[in-house]
Amino acid sequence: MAPAPPTTDRDWRGFARTLALSMVALFAGYLALATLVDPYDTGRSTLLSRGAVRPQGPRTASAVRGRDPAYAGVVIGNSHIQLVEPAALTRLTGIPFLQLSVPATGPAEQFALLGWYLKHHARPEAIVLSADAFWCADDPAFPSEHGFPYWLVGDWPAYLRGLIRFSAAQETINRVGWLLDTRHKAAASDGWWDYERNYLSQGFGIDPAKKAALEKPVGSEPEPHHGGPFPIAARLRAELARIPAATPVVVVFPPVYARGEPPPGSARAGAEAACRAEVRAVLATHDLSTVVDWRDGRPEAANPDQFFDQTHYRLPLARSLTAEIAAAIVRLRTR
Fold first, then answer.
1. Angle between the 156-163 and 166-180 helix axes, to the nearest 10 degrees?
2. Residues 41, 175: Cα–Cα separation, whole Å
3. Is the dihedral of CA 264, 142, 43, 240 positive or negative?
4. How far is CA 309 from CA 1, 198, 200, 216, in A?
5. 261-318 pLDDT per residue, tens
6. Which residues 6+ apart lie within 8 Å of 242 measured at CB?
7. Omega of the bond prior to 229 within 30 degrees of 0, cis?
8. Full set of structural domains in the chain with CATH
9. pTM across the whole model
């Protein structure tokens, strides 16, 4: 048998070229498939959209929920307002409400979601924003320790870049499987998630250590990077400019347990009050607006049975807050 001819540089170059072209074709094929499937149902491709929310966390589910035309009202914040039930707001105001709050988010993420919602709702009937301590940070970028999929609610280039990750590839496969399953489960389209059971299962209200933490008074000095200045004023002004003048806007200062309130006259109390005052002043530039303030020392905030920790309250308190928000919206709409 004749010996095999030696491999030449030309052969290696041909192999490398073929391999490179194959990789490019594979990458392009995946990107085309992922774009077509639209794993998080952002609406960029509606070929496989079924009008239902696949069970997933609120961070990614916000993309499909935020574009749903069925909801003319929206609540945006984090877990400090997440127990406000959208169906209750709908019942009390007549406005179909969406709960678009995402745990562990601050103004940067929340205003990104507001922008996504406004992109798909030109004339919303009501907007509710939760202004908690995260709004009072001194960094105008409002950085967060927790990741957030901005690419889902961003522009096309950001979306395509976001698809180039393992989690997106995995979700592409998961979505196809979900679509093919005739008995697939669906999550709540209005974003309602009662997390009380989650907290109770962790021992809140029972565990002595957690009960002791609830009763520990906060200090008199402002939290780091929360003593001013407050760039939330400029950011809120810019966001309000995107909201139609005829849309009622309610900003909520959510409940804080009495022991979580700073000592009267302290530097921390002054800083927190100054931040809220700036939010109020900017909000007043939007004619149809009001504040629902649960940081006003009301007696309900002194009941430990109504709180899991100093900033997370329970359903009975949430229902009272919901009723007050609804009443504020009704007043604004009847001016």
1. 90
2. 9
3. positive
4. 82, 13, 11, 10
5. 999 999 999 999 999 999 999 999 999 999 999 999 999 999 999 999 999 999 999 9
6. 114, 115, 118
7. yes
8. 54-145+189-333 (3.40.50.1110)
9. 0.92
